[in-house]
Amino acid sequence: MVETRDANEEIWRSDEGISHWVSTAAQRERSRAEHRAVLTELLPVADGEEFCFLDLGAGTGAASRAVLDRYPGARGVLADYSPQMIGQGRRELAGYEGRYRYVEADLTRAGWPPELDGAGDRPSVVISSLAVHHLPDQRKEELFGEILHHLPPGGWFLDYDPVAPPDAVVEEAWLRAGDRRDPEAAAKRANRSPEEQRRYDNHVRHIASLDLQLGYLRSAGFEGVDVYWKQLDHAIFGGRRPLV
Ligand SMILES: C[S@@+](CC[C@H](N)C(=O)[O-])C[C@H]1O[C@@H](n2cnc3c(N)ncnc32)[C@H](O)[C@@H]1O
């Protein structure tokens, strides 16, 4: 049978696909809390300031929640293409009513989703977390350009994502350190079920190196492009739209 649906869609736009994500989220979030805090600390806003941010590939809102908790004046536009993740996110964000809205948008489509404009929102900050790595490189490059174009002068884009190793030596070092932190990691890697292998293959298939993505940001026109935080294969990187 010819497969008509993309593997990424099969995973993210199905009840079965997201049930695993949701059931393992609490454990993952414990180790990510510190990373998410770094992202919020990087935002160029004063503590009580009112501002709007856009979260691309927001999922159930883990990154958005960190921003909403840190900044009482923040309002979020959460974009995702999975009705299932959005539904779960609405349940998890029940305590934030009035401070966020979800928008269903497919980031693989060329061009800025028109749904992201409107409702009077002009995000001064765009964040993304663990989502851009699902896009092919050409689309990453285009998207960074679209983000720059839609930010106001001085507006920031920050992405928290896995990155590909630049070479085999680095990859080996990342694995070594990862395996020391999680003594079960090597066995898990060697004994993936077909479903786990499918999820893993989808996870890694478009992961790109930091250098490539920093280059995309620079050629889009961002300034202050940097890797603001990094731990093995995960990084927070981004920059701002120039003031003039
Ligand atoms: C690994 S989850 C991360 C969710 C959330 N940002 C977080 O940090 O927990 C990836 C998210 O990206 C979304 N996603 C994947 N491909 C997408 C696309 N083409 N357009 C919009 N969202 C997409 C998925 O639906 C999912 O919610």
**N to C succession of SSEs:** HHHEHEHEEHEHHHHEE
What is the helical fraction, as a range of percent?
Answer: 40-55%
Shape: globular
Q: What's the CATH topology label?
A: Rossmann fold
List unreliable stretches of 5+ residues: none
SSE layout and pairing:
Layout: H1 7-12, H2 15-23, H3 25-41, E1 51-56, H4 62-70, E2 74-80, H5 83-92, E3 100-104, E4 125-129, H6 137-150, E5 156-162, H7 168-181, H8 185-190, H9 194-204, H10 210-220, E6 223-231, E7 234-240
Parallel strand pairs: 1-2, 1-4, 2-3, 4-5
Antiparallel strand pairs: 5-7, 6-7
Helix pairs in contact: 3-4, 6-10
Bound molecules: S-adenosylmethionine.
S-adenosylmethionine is lined by residues 8, 12, 57-59, 62-63, 80-82, 85, 106-108, 129-131, 134.
Features:
single chain; 244 residues; alpha/beta; Rossmann fold; seven-stranded mixed beta sheet; 44% helix; binds S-adenosylmethionine
Can you describe this structure?
Helices cover 44% and strands 19% of the residues. The N and C termini lie far apart (54 Å). It has ten helices and seven strands. It has helices spanning 7-12, 15-23, 25-41, 62-70, 83-92, 137-150, 168-181, 185-190, 194-204, 210-220, and strands at residues 51-56, 74-80, 100-104, 125-129, 156-162, 223-231, 234-240. It has a single domain (7-164, 206-240), classed as Rossmann fold, CATH 3.40.50. It is α/β, with parallel strands linked by helices. It has a seven-stranded mixed sheet, sandwiched between helices. The structure holds S-adenosylmethionine.
